[in-house]
Amino acid sequence: MSLFEYAPAPESRSIVELAPSYGLFIDGEFGEAKDTFKTINPADEQVLAEVALAGPEDVDRAVAAARRAFESWSALPGSERAKYLFRIARILQERSRELAVLESLDNGKPIKESRDVDLPLVAAHFFYYAGWADKLKYAGLGPDPRPLGVAGQVIPWNFPLLMLAWKIAPALATGNTVVLKPAETTPLSALFFADVCRQADLPPGVVNIVTGAGDTGRYLVEHPDVNKVAFTGSTEVGRQIARSVAGTGKKLTLELGGKAANIVFDDAPIDQAVEGIVNGIFFNQGHVCCAGSRLLVQESIASSLLDALKRRMATLRVGDPLDKNTDIGAINSRAQLDRITELSEIGAGEGAERWSPPCELPDRGFWFAPTIFTGVTQAHRIAREEIFGPVLSVLTFRTPAEAVEKANNTPYGLSAGIWSEKGSRILAVADQLRAGVVWANTFNKFDPTSPFGGYKESGYGREGGRHGLEAYLA
Amino acid sequence: MPKSATPSRLAVRKTYKLYVAGKFPRSESGRTYLVDGDNVALASRKDARDAVVAARAAQPKWAGATAYNRGQVLYRTAEMLEARRAEFKSLGVAGAEVDAAVDRWVWYAGWSDKIAQVAGGANPVAGPYFNLSAPEPTGVVGVIAPGSLLGLVSVIAPAVVTGNTVVVVASNPQAAITLGEVLATSDVPGGVVNVLTGQAAEIAPWLASHDDVNALDLSGVGDPELATELERAAAGTLKRVIRPSSGVDYTEDPGTGAMTALLEIKTVWHPKGF
C-alpha cells in the first residue's frame, strides 16, 4: 500500500508566548524559588523555558496558602464556587488553541490530539464539575458532604493539562483547595493554567502550582497539613505514596499503571478492530496508562488481522507534533525513550518477533517507530511490564475462557478492550474482566461523566463522574 | 433404704475451633489459648494462608450467584442467628445486642440486589455510546473485627453481601465461632466467611502483606501503631484499606460506606449505531 505524500501542515507556534522563565504560583502570585530547571521540547531538544524547582520551604508556603484559602473557599455557597469553575471552563475554551500548541510543544504529542482530545476534555471536565458544586447533597454521599481541606495533587506528563483538570475540577467543586505539582518534563501548561485562574479572579491560594521533580512531589504528599493526596503515575511510586500516607489519616486516591488486554474475537469487524488496536496502543505515543498494550487475538483470525494491522501501521505518520497530519509525535523524554528501547530489546532478546513499518524518524528529538511484537508469551517481560510507549505485544487464544484468563493474568486492572459482533459474548466477557474501564468495539474513550480508575494494582478511587466526587468529600 | 439421689446430668461442652472453608478445623499449629475457661484455637500464619486460599476459591462463585440468591442466603443467616439468641446470651452477649445483630444482618441482606442501583448507573457521555458504571466486589477481604457481636456482624455482612469473601480475625472467639456455626447452617457456601481466633498482632500482618488479599478492614484494630504498620504492609499490593474505627457506634445507621469501600466501579462503553 502506497502512502500519499502530504505537504507539511504545521500549526503556528506564534499563538503561544513563552517567557524565558517561570516561577511558582503560590497564593495567587508567581514567585521565584532558589533552584530552577529547564523544560525542553522533546521534538527538537530545544529549551522552552526555565522553571522554578520547589523545595520543602516552597511547598510549605504553598500548603499554608491553600490552608488559609480553605476557610473562605469552603464557606462559599456552592453556587458561587460553581461560577468560578464555569469561568475557568470558558477561559480554557477561549484559549484552547494556545494551550493545545503549548501542550504539544512541551509534551511532544500531535497537535491533532492536543487540539481535538485533550483541550476539549479539559474544558468539559471543568464544566461538568462546576455544575456539581451546588448539588453535592444530591450526589448520594450523605445529606451534608464536607470538603476534606487541602489536597496535594501530583500528576504525570502524558496528559498534563487533562490530568490537572481531572484533579483540580472536582477538588474545587467540592470546596477543597489544592497544591498541584505537574510533572518535571511538562510543567508549562499548569503554569498557564495558573494564569487562567488569575484571569478568572479565583481567590488567591485556592489553586497553587509547585513545579519540580520527584522530591517536590514527595514533600507535598508527605506534608503534615495536607488532608488529601491524589496521584496519577507509576504503580511503583503509588506504592511509596500509600506507604508514606499510612497512619496519617489522609484520604488517598491513586491512578496507576496498566497492561490492558485488547481482545479480538473471530467475529470482530476487522477494519474497526484494526482502527481500535491502533488507537489503543499508538494514541499519544502509547504514553497512556490505559493503553491496549496486549493484543489478544483469536488464533483463527490472527494472521489476517496482523496483515491488516501492519498495512494500517504503514500509513501512520510519525514526526513533527505541530504538523496537523502527524499521527505519532515525539516520545516525551530521553529517559522514557531509553526505557522503551530497553524493554523492546528485551522483548526481542526473549524471543518475540519484532516488526515496525518503514519509518523515517527526525534527526533531533526523541522518537520511536510504532512497533509490534508477535509470538509473545505470558512469561515475556513485554507482556507483563508497562512499556508506556508505542509498542504492542501480540498474544493469541482459542476460547473465550482462555482470553479472559490471559487478560486477567496481570497485577494491573485498569482497562480492557473487547471486539466482537456478538452482544451476549461482549457482556459476558466484560463481566469477567477485572478492569475498571472496559471498551467494547471502541477504545480510549474518555468523558467527564464517566468514572475512570483501576482494580488491583492499578490503584483505587475513581476520577470523573459522580463517583469522582467521593474522593474529595467526607 | 437409702434415698435415691437424682443424678445431675453432665453437660456436653462445645470445643471452639476455627471456621475455615466451611469446616471447623483446629489450628494447624496445635495451639490453643484459654478464654473464659475454654481452650480456643490460637490461629497461626499457616491458618491465615489456608483461609485466604479458601476465600479465594469461594469468591468467583459467590460473586457470580445472582444478587437475589445472595440476599436469600444471607436472610437465612439472619434466621439462624435469631434461632441461636439464647446461646449468644449464654456467652454473655446482651439480648438487645443479639437483636441488633440480627436486624443488622437482615438490613444488609436486603442490600444485595439494590446496592448496584445506588452505586452504579448510566453516564451521559458526550457521544453515541452506551456507558454504564456498575459495582463489583473487590475480591478477598482480610478483616480485623471489633470485639462485639454487633461489631462483628457489621463488618462481615457488608463485605459478603457485595460478593466479597472474607478472612476474619476475631477477638471474641466463642461468639465469633458460634457465628461461624450460624453461617455453616445457613447455605452460605464454605469459604465465603472464614473465622480465625487468636491474636490480631500475630495474624494480621500476614493478611496485610498477602498478595492474594485485595482489601484490608482494620475496624477492630485498637493499637494505632499496629494499624499504621498494617496499612503500610497493605501498600505493597495496593490493597484497599478501611482504617480503624475507634469510637464508631455500631448501633447507629451504618450507611452504605462499608459496602462501597469494598466495591470496584467498572465502566463499560459500547458504541451506538444502526
TrEMBL record, chain A:
The entry's keywords: Oxidoreductase
Pfam families: Aldedh
The organism's place on the tree of life at top rank: Bacteria
Active site: E255
Coiled-coil segments on the chain, per record: none
Domain Aldehyde dehydrogenase: 34-473
Keyword Oxidoreductase belongs to the record: yes
PANTHER family: ALDEHYDE DEHYDROGENASE-RELATED
Family: Belongs to the aldehyde dehydrogenase family.
Record-given protein name: Aldehyde dehydrogenase family protein
Species of provenance: Paractinoplanes lichenicola
Species classification: Bacteria, Bacillati, Actinomycetota, Actinomycetes, Micromonosporales
UniProtKB/TrEMBL annotation, chain B:
PANTHER family: ALDEHYDE DEHYDROGENASE-RELATED
InterPro entries: Ald_DH/histidinol_DH, Ald_DH_N, Aldehyde_DH_dom
Keywords: Oxidoreductase
Pfam family, one: Aldedh
Residue ranges constituting the Aldehyde dehydrogenase domain according to the UniProt record: 39-242
Record's protein name: Aldehyde dehydrogenase family protein
